[in-house]
Amino acid sequence: MSDLNVESSNLTEWHSYSLQQSAGAFLKANIATEEEITTVSGQCIEAWNNNLAAEPLFRLATLEDDDESQYEASIERWGTMLASLVTPIMPPAPFAVKMMTPSAFYEKHEPIYDLARSLKCPILYNEDADVIGLGSINPVTATIFAQALHAYVTETLQISPYITCVRMNYESWKALTEKHFSR
Predict the structure, then answer these.
(1) Phi, psi (5° rounding) for residue 134?
(2) Which of 75, 87, 95, 163 has the greatest count of CB atoms below 10 A from its CB?
């Protein structure tokens, strides 16, 4: 699943894998029903097929409550539960919103930018392509994006990057995805 050279308007294997793994984690953590997962999956697939961004945990929050003021509490609670299911356990990063946008990295690696944008999983820092940090409200999405990023860098640059993942709170995630992916 290392091929990122697909147009971002298409559903890639990474999107499908992220959705499949998120759905499994949602069930295991008992935060969503099969019916909710079917609805969230359909929404994400439709968005990705239309070259729009989608994050399964955020979609679940909007399904659960139409009051945006409630998203943060739900996402924080669910993110903590999901973080216990991934290895290594992903720490929260309250400072993430203060990170600079890695514009040069995104411009140099357009397929990574496209996947990060579509999964709403911003890169928080990078030291060239050797050391990269990323974050999301959904630890599962962050883990899958880290795998895709590792595969891309290894394949295209012939280096094995060190990648760290952190959990972001809803407000930081919302601000960073707007800042990073508004172009």
Answers:
(1) -140, 165
(2) 75
Q: Which pair of tokens denotes residue 45?
A: 């697939």
Domain boundaries, given as residue ranges, for the chain:
13-83, 96-180
Sign for the pseudo-dihedral over CA of 23, 25, 28, 32: negative
Which tokens go with 129?
Answer: 């392509």
Cα separations in angstroms, 2 against 19, 79, 143, 158: 17, 26, 14, 13
Question: Does CATH place domain 96-180 in 3.30.750?
Answer: no
pTM of whole model > 0.85?
Answer: yes
3-state helix, strand, coil in the chain (%, to 5): 60, 10, 30
CB within 8 Å of 80: residues ≥ 6 apart: 167
